[in-house]
Amino acid sequence: MLLPVPNPDVIYRPVTEGAVVLSTRDEIYYGLNPVGSWIWEHLPPVHATLDDLCAELRRIHPDVAPDVIYDDARALLTELAQHGLVLFTGRSADESRITAQAAETQPSRVA
């Protein structure tokens, strides 16, 4: 799965315990824990695919099962897309929300 990119209408600010994301368009605030903020900071161009991102997370957190890492990262990205905070390349916020809803209904893959 290709990773989404941050929506240009979103402001990202790191804080002590993670980060805060604000959609200036929809006035949605979203809090990220340290792992969530790490994922945000490693979206394209740092990593292009969910598999690449999860492989690095597995190196950082070897004590966490690979399927848990994959499922949690995918769930976070789906939720961010549903709120229009990230966009799948070449898509509008509304199209990304539809893509996120479709991804939510598909079975997860064990990494």
Walk me through what this model shows.
The chain has 111 residues and is of the alpha+beta class. It has one domain. Helix content is 44%, strand content 19%. The protein is built from four helices and five strands; from the N terminus they run ββββαααβα. It has a three-stranded antiparallel beta sheet, with helices on one face. Strands 1-5 form a two-stranded antiparallel ribbon. The two termini are 12 Å apart. The C terminus is likely disordered.
Short structural summary:
By secondary structure, the protein is α+β, with helices and mostly antiparallel strands. The chain has four helices and five strands. The chain has helices spanning 34-41, 50-60, 66-82, 93-105, and strands at 5-6, 10-15, 18-23, 28-32, 86-87.
Question: Which key phrases capture this entry?
Answer:
alpha+beta, 111 residues, 3-stranded antiparallel beta sheet, globular
For the secondary structure, the number of strands is: 5
Q: Please work out how many helical segments DSSP would assign.
A: 4
Strand order of the largest sheet: 2-3-4
Our estimate of the beta-strand percent is 15-25%
Mean pLDDT: 86
Rg, alpha carbons: 13 Å
Q: Identify the quaternary structure here.
A: single chain
Major sheet characteristics: 3 strands, antiparallel
**Helix/strand-derived class?**
alpha+beta
**Percent of residues in helical segments?**
40-55%
Compile the SSE list and pairings.
Layout: E1 5-6, E2 10-15, E3 18-23, E4 28-32, H1 34-41, H2 50-60, H3 66-82, E5 86-87, H4 93-105
Antiparallel strand pairs: 1-5, 2-3, 3-4
